[in-house]
Amino acid sequence: MRKLIAITLFMVSLNFLNAQQNQDLISIDFNDISRTDAMHQLEEKFNYQFYFVKEWFSQEKININFKNVTISKVLNQIFEDTNFNYFILKNKGIVITQNRVIYSDLPDNFFGNKKVIDKNNRIETESARPVFKNKIVSSNKTRTETVSIGKENPLDKRTKYKLSGYIRDSKTGMPWSNVSIVVKNTVLGVETDKNGYYQITIPRGYNTIETSSIGLGKTQKNVIIYNDGTLNINLSENIEELDEIIVSSKQTSNVVDSEIGTNEVDSEKSKNIPLVMGERNMLKVATALPGITTAGEGSSGFNVRGGKTDQNLILLDNAVLYNPAHFFGIFQALNPFTTKNIKIYKGSVPAQFGGRLSSVFDITTKDGSLDKFKGEASIGPVTGNIALEIPIIKEKASLVLGGRSTYSNWILNSLDNKSLKNSKASFYDLIGKFNAKIDSTNEVRATAYYSNDDFSITSDSVYGYNNLLLSVLWNKKFNDKNSSSLSISKSQYKFNINYDGQSNDNFGYDYGIDEIGAKLRLVYLHSDKHKFNYGVSVKKYEVNPGKKEPLGENSAVIPLNLENEYGLESAVFLEDGYKINNKFLINVGLRYSMFQALGSSLTRVYETGQPRNNETVSDTLNFGKNKTIKNYGGLETRLSGRYLLNKDFSIKLGYNSAYQYLHTLSNNTTLSPIDTWKLSDYHIKPQKSQQLSLGLFKNINGNDYELSLEGYYKKSENVPDFKTGAQLLLNENVETEILQGKGKAYGIEFLVKKNKGKLSGWFAYTYSKSLIKLDSPFKEEQINNGNYFPSNYDKPHNLNIVSNFKVTRRFSFSANFEYQTGRPVTYPIGNFDYQGDTYVIYSERNKFRIPDYYRLDLSFNIEGNHKLKKLGHSYWNISVYNVLGRNNPYSVFFVTENGNVKAYKSSIFSVPIPTISYNIKF
Fold first, then answer.
1. Residues in domain TonB-dependent receptor plug (predicted)?
2. Of the four, 356, 438, 756, 890, which is 20 to 30 A from 411 by CA?
3. Which fold has domain 254-921?
């Protein structure tokens, strides 16, 4: 057999040499014609005879001119940047091949593993060895597709090549992240990133590639790889595995990824957790995870790892969402039917994000279906919700539209109680997203969002606030190694109060913040060991700190309009994901951020070495429009690393430093609509922080159980707080009321998750401390004698238990238990009389605590039948919020009546709240 092969190749070799030695010089012009037409012209003009399969070639046009060149040079240019090779026979015969090369002779090491020494004295054992396709024998009745990748080059001495591409849903075109790609019978394997992209290096020649992910159809492809190339794979959702998606997808990242202090909340995961008013609330699910708390029911914002509520960057499709809640945090301002997931970074924050100290909530909306119309709707006790997915150009472009609204005003107006009948509580939010695949290398996504709240707690005041954001994202793939994303965004938040009482002091008050920004992010896949992310970002801020105007003709209120504040924040960043070996992976990032406080502004200067007050003013500076008032900036370091102790057990370390140039002014414990935003300026310095974290991560019995134990220590500088009794709203010289001090926070977070089986859920416990120190040489600027004291959001013990028990595929029970240490509060500890008046003596700030908080919620979930061919899939949720009827205090306050100090507490829900909601997906 070997002799026969050798004789055959020898004859081909003579044929080839004869053809190469007798090439004539030719001249020809190809003007806007296809490659098949170009070959036909060569046949007609120069008597060549081409042998090829017509279906291989597209109608792509070429424009090339040749003068006095050989046929080899003509063919080299025609087939440049394609996977086609050619072989020239005698008598002007030319054979076109896909991928592979027809060899005219055998390599020196073809028979046996003979060592070949090249001209650089390097030893090669696989030099230019031809690739042979073996006959595949399989017991599997399903035929496995065989694909060829890359253009073979006999001069290429490599034995391994890079295979890359995207994995997407075959119906919707949406990317599938965390899909496993492995090479059968080897230890090679990777996972897709959040954009569905993967890259793997595989041996030259024949390989079997398998993809798998819980909830997706499993695929297998035979791949013959001749050179670096691309393989895009479309996967279909496996309906039989749908329930498993909810609890089991993306679990291996807990151990394998280098990131520490990250969590992800999927929209589907939140539907079985009992919440108030039956509303699916992904942000409330986030607070059931370690290290994330709120001040209590009816509170907006989050305290992450001992940080303030303004230290969280909340992004909706790359645009900042300043207030993510409706009605003081009882409802989220996100449509759960249009939201895909939330990625939360509280330890390892990627270098592309900046401007906040504690965390990033990266919220992504769904891409619309590209092939058919879809929708989802729900109705509950006080809200209704609908979302539609509308294909515009099949397999190319689609539109997502979503809307939510409450009909609580209609309910309140129908009551007999006059005080409730005159009250008001309504909100709505609208979202639209357009996504389009321009071609194989370009994608565009555009999102528009608006939310509005109106409520009246008393009969004489109406409060309102709204969010507006717009964002456009352009993803561009240049080649297998380089890609980019360009995002442009605009965010706006406004708040207003209209007071209309019985006297002549009626007024209208409003404030707002407006920002516009752009970010260019590029990705360079240098090699298997290095993946670079780098880019630039810029933001322009405009803050309206407050405006008060008379309301009505008879109002005696004097108008007051504070000067707008302006600022420019910019940054450059570079990040490298470095795979040292299969066990050790690190991610190193650097971000340099800069901030300019801009005019116009009239700014006070205070005497050096004196407290800031009206008596110590030494000068006034006048800055013109867009003139620089103050420059700030610094280097931010992002570092994380993972070491695999074994395949399902890892240890991770992270370090994070950050600057924050935007702050909120509030005397309250938690973020509320009335909080105003304040830019760093001549007097207010940016906040700075450093955080060190360490964690152990373990999966048991495959991915059935997931365990993690994380510890962190964080130090902060220039944390804003306020003098006792500070006046913040409509204060033209608010810097006289602001104190900036040091903060420190530390804690341990423990999480156990059960991902499979009839009983699933998680147990989360956090022990943490959050302290602040406000010290100064001046007594009036000291709090608690300049010593560390608990911050307003210090809650040492936090326990959450979330569980779901599936009785059948259609019926399940869910439970949610939450316990928190009561937050700090300042109590009166005595009083005294002076000249006939009674005065109260208060304790040191935050010396005492309100009672501890705990709550149990239960729900029963009923799904419709799982027939594939039906108009829609229905889902009922019957839940009881606060089953124990616990009267959890939200706040404790004190009132002096007739010389006596009386304590009162307020709570939001002090009785069980039953709810029933209906959902349908079509």
1. 278-356
2. 890
3. Maltoporin; Chain A (2.40.170)
**Which are the contacts of 779, defined by CB distance < 8 A and separation ≥ 6?**
none
Under DSSP, the state recorded for 685 is P
Residue of 31 and 144 predicted with greater confidence: 31
Burial class, 796, CB count within 10 angstroms (exposed 0-12 / middle 13-18 / buried 19+): middle
Alpha-carbon distance of 216 to 212, in angstroms, equals: 7
* Mean pLDDT computed over 641-663: 94
What's the length of the chain? 922
Residues with Cβ within 8 Å of residue 285, at least 6 apart in sequence: 265, 269, 270, 273, 802
Kindly report the average pLDDT of the chain as a whole number: 84
Helices (H), 582-640: none
Q: Residue 254 and residue 247: Cα distance in Å, rounded? A: 14
Of 419 and 616, the structure prediction assigns the larger pLDDT to: 616
Burial 24-51 (b: 16+ CB within 10 A, else e): eebebebeebebeebbeebeeeeebebe
Outline where DSSP puts E strands in 457-526: 461-477, 482-499, 507-525
**Are the beta carbons of 680 and 661 closer than 8 angstroms?**
yes
The answer on pLDDT for 76 being more than 80 is yes
Query: How far, in Å, CA of 241 to CA of 15, rounded?
Result: 58
Question: Under DSSP, is residue 693 helix (H, G, I), strand (E, B) or coil?
Answer: strand
Fold for 2-106, please state it. Phage tail protein beta-alpha-beta fold (3.55.50)
Q: What is the pLDDT of residues 141-190, one digit of tens each?
A: 456 788 888 888 888 878 888 898 888 877 777 788 888 888 888 878 88
699 φ/ψ angles, rounded to the nearest 5 degrees = -110, 140
CATH of domain 124-237: 2.60.40.1120
- Do the beta carbons of residue 260 and residue 348 sit within 8 Å? yes
Sign of CA dihedral 37, 39, 42, 43: negative
**pTM for the model:** 0.76
Encode pLDDT of 455-501 as tens digits: 876 667 788 899 999 999 999 989 888 999 999 999 999 998 888 87
> Confidence band (pLDDT; 50, 70, 90) for 841?
confident
854 vs 886: CA distance, rounded Å: 7
Count of Cβ atoms closer than 10 Å to residue 615 Cβ: 9
As given in the structure block, the two tokens for residue 581 are 């070996």
Q: Look at residues 516, 497, 518 and name the one whose alpha carbon lies nearest to residue 508.
A: 497
Are 369 and 401 within 8 A, CB to CB? no
Question: For strand 233-235 and strand 160-169, is the pairing parallel, antiparallel, or unpaired?
Answer: parallel
At how many degrees (to 10) do helices 35-46 and 71-78 cross?
170
Residue 551's pLDDT is 87
Spatial neighbors of 709 by CB under 8 A, at least 6 apart, are: 695, 696, 748, 749, 750, 751
Beta bridge partners of 589: 575, 638
Q: Do domains 2-106 and 124-237 have the same CATH topology?
A: no
- Domain borders along the chain are 2-106, 124-237, 254-921
pLDDT tens-digit map of 372-401: 899 999 988 888 899 999 999 988 999 999
Amino acid at 48: Y
Name residues whose C-beta falls within 8 Å of residue 635's C-beta, 6 or more positions apart in sequence. 590, 591, 592, 657
Cβ neighbours for 251, distance < 8 A, ≥ 6 positions apart: 699, 703, 706, 755
Helices (H) and strands (E) in the chain, counts: 8, 59
Residue 784: what are its φ and ψ, rounded to 5°? 55, 45
Distance between CA 277 and CA 814 in Å, rounded?
15
**For residue 316, which of 271, 279, 283 has the smallest C-alpha distance?**
283
Q: Which two tokens stand for residue 437?
A: 């695949």
Say if residue 101's pLDDT is above 90: no
